[in-house]
Amino acid sequence: MAQQNNGAVLHHAPKPFWLLAEITYRCPLHCAFCYNPTDYVTHTQNELSTEQWIKVLRDARKMGALQLGISGGEPLLRDDIEEIVAEAGSLGYYSNLITSGVGLTEKRIAEFKRGGLDHIQLSMHDITKEINNFITDTNTFELKKKVAAMIKEYDYPMVLNVVIHRYNIDHIGEILEMAEQIGANYVELANTQYYGWSLLNRAQLMPTREQLDKAEAITNAFRKKVGSKMQIFFVVPDYYADRPKKCMNGWGEVFMIVTANGDVLPCHSARSLPGLTFPNVKDGTDVEWIWNESPAFNKYRGDDWMKEPCRSCPEKEKDLGGCRCQAYLLTGDAEIADPVCSLSPAHGVILQAIEDAKNPQLAGQPILFRNDKNSRRLVEGELKEVASPFHALP
Amino acid sequence: MSDKIKSDAVFCLARHYRFQWEEAQGGYVLLFPEGMIKLNGGAGEVIKRVDGKKTVGEIVADCKAAFPDVDGLEVDVLAMLELAHEKSWIALKE
Questions:
Q1: pTM (global) more than 0.80
Q2: For chain B, is the Cβ count within 10 Å smaller at the N or the C terminus?
């Protein structure tokens, strides 16, 4: 079925197969690499109610949503996750709880099992207590091991997510060994992508190309050794790629996010883009209209919005010009080719960022951890020296 | 019979995989952590019969009974099971 889109025609009707419920921005961890918005503190007092979430789940399911991510912040800080999981189970979602493990108790996991939760994705940070506790600005190392054992005990697939950055990339072999030891079925080695807090800490977090190449080689060797019992995904950091990622598999194509306060977004950081109004479910707007008709969801569908060099690029279908948020955050122009692309007129900003990460003075700056105090300072316009190089960060 | 798929073998869905009919897609899907596979009509009909009880021979017979007008069905069913096994969507029942 063809669909009108600002004059362009899409020869299919996109469906939101993935629904991500960013159910709260509150979090007991303070990770330096968090992609959550730096102004998240403005969305911690106006969260959707249980009933509002249940309506979102029902409405999205009717449109074909199938995979549900319950994420945050730390979703377990809400005491209604059991109810939400049970609703997701009865609606036929394949539901995923994306958690740091903090707040997961025997009682809760048993309740999730009863409610039909399909899997739990646990974040791990390092094999050393020091790095785990440093990068998350918490004391959570031992707890994560206990939670991993609990996940196994309740016969959940063990899905580990490890965000990779300069402080743990050299331990990737040991991290994989640890994953094998605790019986992980899936391991996602997610190189940090630079949005939100991680963008502010980019020079401190970005590994060098040499570190990255080595980590990738170790991962490939490990993959061969371990065979099919453990699936390893290595998410390549786009700064070191020649072409941009096909962000979210396309704007408004398969992915829909509902944020803690009820905004409906096509990607995690879409609110940083200028001139777009994202509808909010609290206003009674239904998600079907938002997905199909809202100007925001149609803004970057298809390729009508592209300019050169994307417009005439033979590879435009492959990456759709990359990430609009990244383009805007780094250049102030939301429609320019993602600067990651070597053909982008703004590619220089990426090369500069890579240089900056090698500069000991910049790389050695104190990290700005994700916490309420820092978020409030950013909202109030302090910390200009950290935020000002990037567009749309408060 | 295929070299790899024996007629007396019994398969079940891989652990943690879920198979269901999706109205919005008009077809069967396989769901697993971080992903899903949409099965086309024929593939869905084969996987639907993988229940940890039926032998491969019984699945073939069942498909033939359900679709008597389709020629060469056995080859297709076996190829589908082989592919599904290769991709680890299904596993030999222990």
A1: yes
A2: C
Task: Give this complex's ipTM.
Answer: 0.86
List of residues 6+ apart from B2 with CB closer than 8 A: B78, B79, B82
The DSSP code sequence of A35-91 is -S-TTGGGGSSSPPPHHHHHHHHHHHHHTT--EEEEESS-GGGSTTHHHHHHHHHHH
Of B18, B34, B36, the CB nearest to A17: B36
The residue of B23, B29, B34, B86 whose CB has the most chain A CBs within 10 angstroms, and thus the best one to mutate to test that interface, is B34
Per CB-CB distance under 8 Å, the chain B contacts of A15 are 24-25
CB contact under 8 A, B16 and A119: yes
Q: Smallest Cα–Cα separation from A244: which of A365, A339, A156, A325?
A: A339
Averaged confidence pLDDT in chain A: 93
Q: What is the pLDDT of residues A266-312, one digit of tens each?
A: 999 999 999 999 999 999 999 999 999 999 999 999 999 999 999 99
- Please count the other Cβ atoms lying within 10 Å of the Cβ belonging to residue A254: 17
List residues of chain A with CB under 8 Å from any CB of chain B. 15, 17, 62-64, 66-67, 92, 94, 96, 118-119, 121, 156-157, 159, 185-186, 188, 228, 233
Q: What are the structure tokens assigned to A83, written together?
A: 């109810």
